[in-house]
Amino acid sequence: MEQSSDFIIFLGRFHPLFLHLPIGFLVLGFLLEFISRKEKYKSLQPAVGFTLLLGAISALVTAILGLMLATDGGYSEDLLSIHQWLGIGLVIFAFGAWWLYTQKEKKKEARLDKAYVGLLSLMMVFLAGAGHYGGSLTHGTNYLTQYMPNGLRALAGLPQQQKGFKPIENIEEAVVFQEIVHPILEMRCNSCHNASKKKGELQMHTVDYLKKGGENGPVFVAGQPLDSEMIKRIHLPESDDDHMPPKGKTQLTPEQVALLEWWIEEGAPFDKKVAELKTTSEIDDILITLADPDANKSEVELLLAKGVEEADPEKIKEIKSKGAMIKPLSNKENWLQVSISKNLPVDELLAEIAEAFPKQVTWLDIKDSPVSDDGFAAVAKMTNLTRLRAEKTSITDNAMSHIRELPYLEFLNIYGTKVGDEGVLALEDLSNLRRLYVWDSQVTKDGARKLEGRNSKLEVNLGFEVTVVDSLSVQVVPVKGE
Ligand code: HEC
Question: pTM for the whole thing?
């Protein structure tokens, strides 16, 4: 019994080799059929039946070998059964197509030809399906998409591929298994140790399976990294058959090995955070590299880095034709900078921009223009505005009630306007505001100091104070609100 089942598996292992024959014959038969319908290639017509028959026979042999291989086990049941039925269907359709071919050749009925073409097409669908599921069985379901570029992944609606670790925002709070250990296993081990490919009877894609271990029992011993099977195998020389990941596959980096050992050393917990485990200085150094480089970026930097969808180029063209200057902030992004010069109907243009592409405008320059307080109602709609230059206009505190609606505003110049203390104090909630230029306006030193008191990152610039130090030297110091 033992021996006969070994022999069956031995034969079954020819399935992956043999399956190329039916693929070749059936695809060729399909192509010949349609090519030979052209007058020029008519002479190929008699070859179609023969090719289809060869395809059908080799498909039958392949299917039998496949059934033998399946007795070897270790495949995902669901995938296997879909693959199996597609394969069996393919054999039936291939023979069916060949038979219909012989019939229509004999009887020359249009009805038969239609049925034949239909069956031939169905056969190709089953061929593609069986091939695809077969690939998923041996290589894992993500085999095709694993190295797909992110652009294509987006088109296919797949999640974006993270190269290595997903950056961790707060390392101390990170759950060690979930955010550090699991991603390593996911990247380097799970392709062979998962639900559909359980090499060594070991699955590593869920906590329960990982705890369960493989055919030789548990793969880690809490507290004992060097006695843990998975670590032992990682340390074997790469040429050793038991080395993991097997020779030729992308290997773990020394840092990844150190992290796995650290996790086991600390008792292999599944719910503890970094802060709850002891670390060595070596581990600390590695952990730092996992931290999110964006963690210290300002909200405005993150917004600009995140980007924005493209504004309608037709609309841009239209508003540009009315005199507004509209340029990309840099040539690879969709963010826009807009400036409108003095002799234009600013309020109207602002309203049109706010209508057409309010989100894309991040820099706006309307200095020295006849903009009115009401014109700022349109500006308030440009919610991603980070820089606004409105100096030397006749705006008043009323405009500020609109400007305070701009959460990302970082830089505001309103020097030479009629804005006063009440106006600028209305901006106290703009937590991203860093620079405010108010010299030569109605804003007092007192008002400026008050506002700075409410936003510690804000610098209010009141212009320059000229002090005559003595008869020969003059000291010029910027007046800050303090
Ligand atoms: C390319 C496929 C592949 C990858 C990737 C892979 N393994 Fe394996 N693994 C195997 C095969 C095949 C076996 C069974 C053969 C054997 O026992 O050597 C196995 C067996 C094991 C076993 C023994 C299970 C037992 O109980 O016998 C452990 C432990 C193991 N792998 C750990 C890992 C770890 C950890 C990783 C990632 C660092 C990994 N494997 C990555 C193919 C792979």
Answer: 0.43
